[in-house]
Backbone:
């Protein structure tokens, strides 16, 4: 290599420009730092209330938690013994039973709907997709209203029933799982679809043996998100499951649930009831946190391949 | 155009790869016959007028610059355009005696007889190496354990992959290297014992050594399967193919078949000046 000789002269204009850029540089740094400071301030403003919620739930909730609180059923305190609130076992059982059945029913219904959505081309497919999108955005109390006014009379003889709550929660969860399934299937590389078809497989076989297995981690994440939403929902079940003080493993009986008991205790006359609401809040927060953590682990694992 | 004709007459040194003329290559039996095949997407013609015979046991290469419709024509052979709304294939394609588009053969059965290897290796990510190989058989209703077991070894052997994977057949296919994955895809396609194997730029995503291995492999494979390969790499076509179809984009941007001949003739004595320009590297 021969040495390159520069034929670019050191003109005045070049020196002027470089001088100007040097002067501007300090200004740019200052402006950048000011913007960064504003962004950090906004972050702090957003984080303070969030953190204070979490901290107060942990702080006040942990004071209520005890073995008795978790294993005894609910009691009504009275004037001579204002601390006799018993525990929340009836609500734990109710939540387990209702959320379990609701998600168990919503998984097949939602996944099959999602499969059909991912295959449905044209107007009908788009319309169903829109309906599901709207259903996801609906205020959850509408599901409660629907079951209360439309189903409770004819189906449940106007009696409160855990199953009515199950129906409300299932209806709410199906579109979440369906849309998650649809987008998970759409994210499967089209070349895998072609590879399957090019071997002589029928499209249904490709869906079942190639696309669904490849989409499974993302579908599972959708299911867990639907679960964590169902666990925390008050409105869909509030009017329809009653207020059982017994632990009922029978889903058709009158039921209780963690969010509805929280609601009930927040309106309670005795301070001990309002303190107990913090305890339930801590349990709900922990459950939702664990479910989210699980879905994180699943999606991280699937990305590692 | 005149320039190139002149060049052809004057040229004594070929820039193009020299191909040995070997009369023994392939048989004269026809595996697939294309008769004036055109493909259009939503009314816009992408490739037209392709007429040639794919000889049994030979490697037929489709070459040409980008946009000449090579891949489009290849995907017409196993009806993969059926997946694209608005795609239309005209003309006649025969697989043996069966009319591919004339209702002569159900599409899944056609695709089992005309296998395909894609540009990028696409093993099924949730299946093991062994399950990838047997997937085609299982999709086509073969359940016999013994038959599936035999297919694993035979196909991996044919794809020159058996020795390196025989101890980890249950491992996920994603644990293989890119070149190994592509050979797994070849094994997967071979397991259903197709008559014809379509290869769509099978080495375009591979390193030179993996490319070499797949090119070597093709010479063994053509003893058991007729191969049609699309390649943008002229040297590769010269190295691996027996017959060669040269396609070029016409003025209306539709690909056309310019010349079809034995590879030795295409590279040593092309009849069309445009073919000569291309193999001498003047464009594309």
Residues:
């Amino acid at each position: 290599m021969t040495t390159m000789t520069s034929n670019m002269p050191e003109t005045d204009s070049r020196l002027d420009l470089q001088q100007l850029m040097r002067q501007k540089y300090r200004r740019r740094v200052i402006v950048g730092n000011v913007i960064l400071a504003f962004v950090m301030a906004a972050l702090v403003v957003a984080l303070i209330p969030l953190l204070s919620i979490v901290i107060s739930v942990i702080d006040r909730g942990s004071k209520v938690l005890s073995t008795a609180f978790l294993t005894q059923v609910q009691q009504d305190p009275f004037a001579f013994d204002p601390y006799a609130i018993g525990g929340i076992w009836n609500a734990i059982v109710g939540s387990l039973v209702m959320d379990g059945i609701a998600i168990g029913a919503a998984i097949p219904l939602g996944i099959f709907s999602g499969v059909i959505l991912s295959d449905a081309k044209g107007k009908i497919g788009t319309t169903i997709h829109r309906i599901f999108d709207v259903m996801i955005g609906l205020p959850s109390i509408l599901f409660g209203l629907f079951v209360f006014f439309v189903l409770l009379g004819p189906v449940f003889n106007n009696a409160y029933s855990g199953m009515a709550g199950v129906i409300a929660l299932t209806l709410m969860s199906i579109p979440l799982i369906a849309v998650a399934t649809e987008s998970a299937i759409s994210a499967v590389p089209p070349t895998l679809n072609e590879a399957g078809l090019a071997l002589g497989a029928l499209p249904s076989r490709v869906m079942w043996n190639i696309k669904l297995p490849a989409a499974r981690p993302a579908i599972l994440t959708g299911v867990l998100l639907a679960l964590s939403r169902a666990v925390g929902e008050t409105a869909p079940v509030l009017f329809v499951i009653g207020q059982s003080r017994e632990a009922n493993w029978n889903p058709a009986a009158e039921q209780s649930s963690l969010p509805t008991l929280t609601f009930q205790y927040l309106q309670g006359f005795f301070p001990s009831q309002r303190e107990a609401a913090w305890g339930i809040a801590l349990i709900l927060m922990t459950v939702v946190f664990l479910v989210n953590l699980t879905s994180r682990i699943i999606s991280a694992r699937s990305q590692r391949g | 155009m005149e320039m190139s004709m002149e060049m052809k007459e004057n040229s004594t040194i070929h820039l193009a790869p020299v191909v040995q003329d070997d009369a023994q290559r392939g048989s004269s039996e026809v595996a697939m016959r294309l008769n004036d095949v055109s493909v259009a997407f939503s009314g816009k013609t992408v490739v037209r007028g392709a007429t040639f015979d794919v000889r049994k046991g030979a490697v037929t290469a489709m070459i040409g610059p980008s946009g000449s419709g090579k891949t489009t024509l290849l995907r017409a052979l196993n009806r993969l355009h059926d997946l694209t709304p608005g795609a239309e294939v005209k003309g006649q394609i025969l697989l043996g005696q069966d009319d591919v588009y004339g209702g002569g053969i159900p599409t899944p059965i056609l695709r089992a007889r005309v296998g395909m290897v894609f540009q990028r290796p696409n093993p099924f990510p949730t299946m093991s190496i062994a399950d990838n190989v047997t997937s085609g058989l299982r999709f086509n209703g073969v359940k016999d354990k013994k038959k599936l077991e035999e297919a694993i070894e035979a196909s991996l052997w044919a794809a020159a992959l058996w020795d390196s994977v025989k101890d980890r057949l249950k491992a996920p296919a994603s644990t293989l290297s890119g070149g190994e994955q592509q050979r797994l895809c070849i094994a997967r396609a071979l397991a259903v014992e197709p008559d014809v194997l379509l290869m769509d730029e099978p080495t375009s995503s591979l390193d030179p050594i993996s490319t070499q291995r797949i090119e070597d492999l093709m010479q063994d494979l053509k003893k058991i399967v007729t191969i049609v390969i699309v390649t943008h790499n002229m040297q590769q076509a010269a190295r691996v193919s027996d017959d060669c179809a040269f396609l070029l984009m016409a003025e209306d941007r539709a690909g056309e078949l310019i010349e079809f001949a034995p590879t030795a003739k295409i590279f040593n004595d092309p009849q069309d000046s445009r073919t000569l320009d291309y193999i001498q590297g003047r464009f594309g």
The mean pLDDT of chain A is 89. Residues 72 and 117 of chain A are 46 Å apart (CA to CA). Chain A has eleven helices and no strands.
